[in-house]
UniProtKB/TrEMBL annotation, chain A:
Residues annotated as domain N-acetyltransferase: 14-164
Ranges in a coiled coil: none
Keywords, ordered alphabetically: Acyltransferase, Transferase
Top-rank taxon: Eukaryota
PROSITE patterns according to UniProt: GNAT
Organism: Gossypium tomentosum (Hawaiian cotton)
Protein's UniProt name: N-acetyltransferase domain-containing protein
One Gene Ontology term, aspect cellular component: NatC complex
Family: Belongs to the acetyltransferase family. MAK3 subfamily.
CDD domains: NAT_SF
GO molecular function: protein-N-terminal amino-acid acetyltransferase activity
UniProtKB/TrEMBL annotation, chain B:
Residue ranges constituting the NAA35-like N-terminal domain according to the UniProt record: 47-186
Major site of localization recorded for this protein: cytoplasm
Superkingdom in the source lineage: Eukaryota
Pfam families for this protein: Mak10, TPR_NAA35
Domain NAA35-like TPR repeats: 356-724
One CC-aspect GO term: NatC complex
Protein name according to UniProt: N-alpha-acetyltransferase 35, NatC auxiliary subunit
Species annotation: Gossypium tomentosum
Length: 170, 729
């Protein structure tokens, strides 16, 4: 049977391997994925900024040795809150709709939570229904609407996830 | 210093390269840096970075890759400079030696400029739009071409006027790009005479039009007029096409000038010019058929995408020439609006401006606020909104005419005499005046920006209330005075305190409902939003009712009647229609809250849990600004849970709030027979109430039993009260 490129790749769930950013050898994989899918002009320094300072927050998804998805994040102090930020999230087309993006983001958010973040934030196009549904299921709210945020005139939502206060250990 | 470009000879393969370049001078020399760069490439290993005092990883993110077209704004596309472009014939004068083609191309330039102007208004930089026109960048050289020259002049003067209006409004919304004009030649000597220059050209073409009409009817010509162009069959069509374009520019410039006049003195004249603009735009649209059929060759591609009526590409434009001037944006190619869409934009802009010019400058703040809210429903763009803001707030007064204390005085139902009271010099009252002024400015911004500002604004209104209350208690706390002036002061305080509360709840209400318009709430959050809306509306209705009672007292005291007739007493005890209107809202909010709560409590899959947080965190986030300002008091996540935790289908069946809403809406319609907007809204509220009432009955009867029932929420009838839709999946 002929498989067209648009059709979903046939995979079994356990076949996706999730790996934490491990070094410079992962950088070209991340860059290629992001360059392919997103239109923002990022230089290599932008990637290095994220993965060098917060390697534990970036993850890659592999299927049979091929990198099919990645998430790149940072965290830091912002106006008296310790906050995580999701900078880039990409899964290549044939692998979408299988929860890979959710898994990548979940791992990163968990790491942020364990590192003491109080909240997590990101921007997404108001037309990006997939992203909005994904983050909505994880507990993000649409905190603000940013008018004409993108150069093509599209608005953005600022999405925010507030963690519950840490449980008191008795 | 050499004034001609020097052509570099050397290159890698020995072939002379023909790149024009910056000439070397007495103190500068060109040197080949290739070997240095080669060596540098090998100087760092993968992953290494030069560290400096001001150069770390974060700073490195701003690095540009030279020659990357996405990042390098200095990258040369066709011409290095405007002069080079002109020298290479990119903007010829005349455009063509064939007068027919010259006229045709001139019209193309006019059309493309209109499309550029619309693209600029919509949010792109001036440099990449209107000032991508080489003729405009070197306007003086167009002097021999009267038509082009006069048109460019008025464009320049118009852009300057529009920049001035938007700058003065100073809303600093997201689209700061609009007022960026550095390096652009916006100020021209003699641009104040642009109208007379344009009029002269218009007059000439009018005469030519009369002349060619006289020729066609075979009447003798009194003058010996030179025709516009060489093809007598096309003369009339070209004259008409040009005239409507010139007249549109003339009238549009007049609109801007009239609207600029202080205290709204020019609004009536502006309306006349707006009407003329719209007429000319219609003629411009009609001219497209003629312009497309002028020549035998037809243009390629979809005519609807073109930026000119004729469909041909305009001569004399290069958006990349200004790329270094249009920083900080990266050199992204922007899409200029199509000519058709540009005309549509201007039609809408003119209609929005007409609404502003028709406004009666009502001194009653409440009416003004409703006018602004209504105006915003048509989603006017930045230029229209800036004009509205400048009309409302000038020289620190309402309409440049009414001091804000007087406005507040009237809004707070105080007697006319108190508007000049000395108490207005009190710091708190001065600040209150500023708050009202800022409120009006905020209400003129785009919805996304507006909501953020309103949220932060709540704190300011809360603080002013506390300040005023403190001042009031300090002055009049324990002593009951009999002095007239002290009684007046007390009355001013009391009325204004009540009015401030009402305004604060109105702002909170607006903040909440804008969330629906901006699609900030997901379905799972509707329950808490309607619950909070209900809480705010209860307080708003309470304060509005009190305010009206107090206003009635003031009116009575002014009135001539000494005794109340039975009719008056009856009228007094009835709830005022404005309050009933709010009660309709309250019933709908309550109904939706309880229905959503029941759905959530009875059907677990309706709102699944999220792995990282709970409803409590979402509540805190959505209502943080309201909670911080204690609006309303004693409202918390706990009280929300208490109100909704016991909702079930069985409890829902016991009371139908939607039926109440329906009844109130029906009853109160007659009181708003002179208010078409509120009447229209009442009809919508009735529809929502009716649909939701039915839906509630279905859910109560079948909800728990039929798992195939799907409940969804649409804003098909009303912008912020959802219509509940029940379907079988």
């Amino acid at each position: 049977m002929e498989v067209k490129p648009e059709e979903k790749a046939e995979i079994e769930e356990p076949e996706i391997e999730y790996v934490s950013y491990g070094g410079e050898h992962h950088l070209p994989l991340i860059m290629n994925l992001v360059d392919q899918e997103l239109s923002e002009p990022y230089s290599i320094f932008t990637y290095r900024y994220f993965v060098y300072l917060w390697p534990q927050l970036s993850f890659l998804a592999f299927h049979k040795g091929k990198c099919v998805g990645t998430v790149v994040c940072k965290m830091g102090e912002h106006r008296n809150t310790f906050r995580g930020y999701i900078a880039m999230l990409v899964v290549i087309k044939p692998y979408r709709g299988r929860g890979i993006a959710t898994e990548l983001v979940t791992r990163s958010i968990r790491m942020m939570m364990e590192s003491g973040c109080e909240e997590v934030t990101l921007e997404a196009e108001v037309t990006n229904k997939g992203a909005l549904a994904l983050y909505g299921r994880l507990g993000f709210i649409r905190a603000k609407r940013l008018f004409h945020y993108y150069l093509n005139g599209v608005d953005a939502f600022r999405l925010k996830l507030l963690f519950p206060p840490p449980r008191q250990v008795l | 210093m050499a004034d001609k470009p020097v052509y570099e000879e050397a290159s890698i393969d020995g072939q002379p390269s023909k790149l024009a370049s910056i000439p070397a001078s007495d103190t500068t020399v060109w040197a080949d840096a290739s070997p240095l760069l080669q060596a540098a490439c090998a100087g760092l290993r993968d992953g290494e970075l030069i560290h400096g005092d001001n150069f770390n990883l974060f700073a490195a993110m701003s690095a540009l890759e030279i020659m990357d077209p996405k990042m390098d704004s200095g990258i040369v596309c066709t011409y290095y400079s405007i002069d080079e472009a002109i020298e290479n014939g990119a903007a010829p004068i005349p455009i063509s030696l064939d007068s027919t083609i010259d006229v045709c191309r001139t019209i193309d330039i006019m059309d493309h400029l209109l499309a550029c102007e619309a693209a600029w208004h919509k949010g792109h930089s001036l440099a990449q739009t209107v000032f991508s026109c080489i003729y405009l960048l070197r306007l003086d050289r167009t002097a021999p071409h009267a038509l082009l020259h006069s048109y460019c002049r008025i464009i320049r003067a118009t852009c300057k006027a529009v920049v001035s209006v938007v700058s003065d409004a100073r809303t600093h919304e997201e689209e700061d790009l609009f007022t960026l004009t550095y390096g652009l030649p916006l100020n021209g000597d003699g641009d104040d005479k642009c109208l007379s220059i344009l009029n002269a050209v218009e007059e000439t073409i009018s005469r030519q039009l009369r002349a060619c009409k006289a020729t066609s009817s075979k009447r003798r010509l009194p003058e010996d007029l030179e025709p516009l162009q060489s093809n007598p069959n096309l003369e009339e069509g070209f004259c008409k096409a040009l005239l409507c374009r010139l007249r549109f520019r003339k009238h549009f410039f007049h609109v801007l000038s009239c609207m600029k006049r202080p205290q709204g003195r020019g609004l009536e004249s502006a309306r006349k010019h707006i009407a003329s603009c719209l007429t000319e735009l219609e003629s411009i649209l009609k001219s497209a058929d003629f312009l497309r059929s002028c020549f035998d060759e037809s243009c390629e591609g979809d005519i609807d995408d073109k930026t000119t009526a004729s469909g041909f590409e305009p001569i004399g434009f290069d958006a990349m020439l200004n790329s270094r001037l249009s920083a900080p944006t990266p050199p992204r190619a922007i899409k200029i609006l199509s000519w058709k869409k540009a005309v549509e934009y201007f039609v809408k802009l003119l209609h929005d401006l007409d609404v502003i010019c028709s406004y009666s400058l009502d001194p009653h703040l409440e009416s003004l606020l409703r006018f602004v809210v209504q105006f915003q429903k048509s989603q006017p763009d930045l230029v229209a909104r800036s004009h509205l803001q400048l009309l409302l707030v000038q020289d620190g007064k309402l309409y440049g005419r009414d001091p804000f204390f007087a406005v507040i005085n009237k809004a707070a139902a105080l007697p006319e005499a108190t508007k000049n009271h000395d108490i207005q010099k009190n710091e708190s009252f001065l600040q209150l005046g500023m708050l009202v002024m800022n409120l009006l400015k905020i209400l003129c911004t785009n919805a996304a920006w507006q909501r953020r500002k309103l949220g932060k604004f709540l704190q300011d209104w809360r603080v002013i209330y506390v300040q005023l209350e403190l001042a009031f208690r300090n002055e009049y706390g324990e002593v009951s005075s009999s002095s007239n002036d002290e009684n007046t002061c007390m009355k001013i305080f009391q009325h204004i305190l009540l009015w401030v509360e009402e305004q604060t709840f109105w702002i909170a209400f607006r903040f909440l409902i804008l969330g629906f318009e901006l699609e900030l709430y997901s379905t799972g959050e509707y329950c808490m939003v309607y619950w909070y809306l209900y809480a705010v509306l209860i307080k708003l209705a309470e304060k509005t009712h009190l305010m009206m009672a107090v206003s009635h007292d003031t009116a009575k005291r002014k009135g001539k009647k000494k005794k109340d007739s039975p009719k008056d007493l009856a009228r007094e005890s009835r709830i005022p229609p404005a309050v009933l209107f709010l009660q309709c809202y309250i019933c709908l909010a309550e109904g939706l809250t309880m229905m959503l709560a029941a759905l959530r409590n009875e059907i677990p899959v309706f709102h699944g849990p999220s792995p990282f947080n709970t409803e409590h965190e979402k509540f805190v986030q959505h209502f943080e600004l309201l909670q911080r300002a204690c609006i309303p008091d004693h409202v918390s996540y706990l009280s929300y849970k208490e109100s909704t935790t016991h909702a079930r289908f069985s409890t829902l069946a016991m009371y139908n709030y939607f039926k109440d809403a329906q009844r109130i809406a029906k009853e109160v319609k007659s009181s708003f027979s002179n208010d078409p907007e509120r009447l229209a809204e009442l009809r919508k509220l009735e529809q929502v109430a009716e649909h939701n009432s039915v839906a509630q009955n279905v859910i109560c009867r079948l909800g728990a039993l039929d798992p195939s029932l799907k409940v969804s929420f649409e804003f098909s009838h009303h912008p912020f009260f959802a219509t509940v839709v029940v379907k079988r999946s």
